[in-house]
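Mods, move this if it's the wrong board.
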Amino acid sequence: MRGRPVRVLLLLTLVPLLIVLGLLAVAALHGRGAERPRAPAVSTPGFAAAGTVRTDVGRGASGAAIFRRPGTAAGAVVVLLHGWGRTDPRIYAPWISHLVARGATVVFPAYQAAPYLDTVSPLANTLAAMTVALRKISVAHGRLVVAGYSAGGALAADVAASARAAGLPAPAAVYSIYPGRSLPGIPLRIPRVSARNIPAGTRLVVLAGERDRVVGTRVARLIARTASRARVTLRTVRDDMVDDNGAPERHDAVARRTFWSPLDRLIEAAP
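Not the wrong board. Structure tokens:
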């Protein structure tokens, strides 16, 4: 009987450790892939994507970096939500530069901080970051677009469903790339806001990766199915070059065609 308390104590010690190790393994998984930047997943206040100026607003997980082209009027405002633990905007620098070069202002919320175990606060952090960011920049009616990848893809739908209740403008369009709320073998999950709350007429484009072994396709299909008032397009990417979870962080020609072009079209279609 003396061994039983010891075994219980060991389990209580090992389970949190295994959770942390699992999250670190997933972060490493996100860090692999051709042409993906090898940037650390930390905030870098001094960094600005090529051709942009950067303004940091808010603090910590409730803060955001704003990227825009100097000396020009703001066009569309794109809120770009990163994958889990990928808080360094250098990872997305080519995409940010591309969007800014096309006249958009990019808001890059941090929404989380190391050790990335908090799954409850990311939505509230994102809404807080958007609130402070939109005080610094003007966004015309219908010119707000929210885009996200993996965990950020799920949050993009949640933001659209929650914006009005949070006192924020509702996005005209939402772009959810390979969305996910949990990871294999890890008992942590981002809470879901029903996509039924996405306002009528919102353009919603959801991509699922056929070979996505990190988050799968279930969340993408659920978002598309429940967003009954939005104008929904669900597409399953089957190209072996870009249907894995890490592909949206690349910037080769096929990744640009698969992931950047749909967002460009959403921005162009915004009134």
